[in-house]
Amino acid sequence: MQSILLPIDPQKEKEKIVAFLKATLEKQRINHAVIGLSGGIDSATSFALLSEILHPEQIIVAHMYYFESKFSEIEQVVHHARIPNENIYHISIKEPVDALLRLQQIEEAESNRVRIGNITARTRMIVLYDLAKKHQALVCGTENKSENLLGYFTRFGDQASDIEPIAHLYKTQVYQLASYLSLPEAVIKQKPSAGLWQGQTDEGQFGFSYEEADQVLFLHVEKGLSEDEIEKQGFINAKKILTWRKKNLFKHNVPYHL
């Protein structure tokens, strides 16, 4: 497999994102932001960038979990930013999610995993937007470009946000920026997971790695190469990656309207 590196200048990237965040908040005349911190690299990186332009008391952190809390994995990041305790929300969403599952008569079975995952993601977003209303804040999203191109998001769930700091960066580029921002190794080495079910990981669900996906997506979307041309470069999962993208393209086109 030919290696197509996607390097960034992390210092310039940080400066560009910080300027974007600052300009957007000033334009909207809003000086507070709410962000969901999962324990993963995307939310931790987005939070670190947000803390560059807002005072600690202007950032509201929500750590929402269905299984066990992973706050210990990002506690160092939060406390380093001096976020006051009253701005940190530890919220178990198990009770409301379970109530919805009972209402919809959805049993916990492998065949229902996606439905349960979608309900979980949408419950988290309900909490974030309620906190945004309470604090007169914008909801800061944590989506990266890889997730967006693959359609790996829940509509009106983790996709819903008011501002996105890293949506233009591939996952492998987020890792570069996270290292530059000196995020804890525990966060950087955390296996990417949406936390949709016990033991769930992004790459396990995909059947391919972000490293390969990023290169295939770059060659196809930005360089215009066909699936066959990409496979000839040694990317054996090109078909699987592009099929995943194709099956989710509809998510970018809804709602359909006249």
Notes on the protein architecture:
- The protein is of the alpha/beta class and about 260 residues long.
- It has a single domain (about 10-200), classed as Rossmann fold, CATH 3.40.50.
- It has helices at about 10-30, 40-50, 75-80, 95-105, 115-135, 145-150, 170-180, 185-190, 200-205, 210-220, 225-230, 240-245, and strands at about 35, 60-65, 90, 140.
- It has a 4-stranded parallel beta sheet with strand order 3-2-1-4, sandwiched between helices.
- Helix 2 (about 40-50) links the parallel strand 1 (about 35) and strand 2 (about 60-65).
- Helix 2 (about 40-50) packs across helix 7 (about 170-180) and helix 4 (about 95-105) crosses helix 5.
Q: How confident is the prediction overall: mean pLDDT?
A: 94
- Can you tell me the CATH architecture? 3-Layer(aba) Sandwich
Percentage of residues in helical conformation: 40-55%
**Which superfamily, in CATH terms, is the homologous superfamily?**
HUPs
Main sheet record:
4 strands, parallel
CATH fold naming:
Rossmann fold
Name of the CATH class: Alpha Beta
Q: What proportion strand?
A: 5-15%
Reading side by side through the largest sheet, how are the strands ordered? Answer: 3-2-1-4
**What is the β-strand count?**
4
Low-confidence stretches: none
* Number of alpha- plus pi-helical segments: 12
Q: What's the Cα radius of gyration? A: 19 Å
Query: Which structural category fits the helices and strands?
Result: alpha/beta
**H/E series:** HEHEHEHHEHHHHHHH
| Through-space gap between termini | 45 Å
- Overall number of structural domains: 1
Dominant shape: globular
